[in-house]
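Technical note accompanying the year-one report. For the benefit of new consortium partners, we illustrate the data format agreed upon in the data management plan: each record pairs a sequence with a structure-token string. No post-processing was applied to the example shown here.
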Amino acid sequence: VDTAGGLPTRHNPGCVLENNPHFVLYVERPTDMRITLSQVDSRGVATKEVHPAALYVCTPAVAGRPNRLKALQSSSVTASTGLPRRQRTQHCYTKLQPGMYMVLCAAYAAGMEGAFTMEILSNYPVRTAQLWPPRWESAEDEDPNLDEDGVKGQVARIKRAYKRATEEDGAGEASAKPGPRKSGIAHLLGKARIHGGGADDDADDDDDDDDDGDGARGRRPGKEEQRHKDYDMMAGVEDQATQA
């Protein structure tokens, strides 16, 4: 499939304009947009050679019917990047009314081939689809489920890809979701309990003293608990004295 027909100039007498890449652009409401033509591949890697090229936004010969352009006429060209220029990136700024348009990307002369990307930035959603070369000619984007006109099939393919990406993101988030944890208040209450909570200041003073003598580092008994231990010890000493 020939995809480098070039532009109709005196240096390209055998130009076949319809062999250049064509895209269909659907606009549903008046929209300002910027269309960018970049000579880079799908990974964003720049090509070795930069060809003089241009981008044109045109109305189709038959309104509402996508078809490849056979000629560039001032009456059909709505917007463009201007004369073909040897630049890595070119921009086309325009405001389009509702309707269907053809976007043509072409190098200056026939046979000038290289990777390129087209990017559309608009303030309202628009729809695009590749018309030429046919989708089935692209090994990277082959999709046998496309409709005959290629437009509805392209939209369906984008929706399926978006759905798969959304499901994968949801699954990843579910697998990475941490276990149950306390809310802010419960966490603070738990921390207060660990550090003694509502105990009086005397209990904190007792905690500062380490009279065990055995080197144990643990929770020190409270004041009331220590008092019971002292009573038990005194009772034991009295029992021993009575037995003696």
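Partners are asked to follow this layout when depositing records. The first helix runs from residue 151 to 175.
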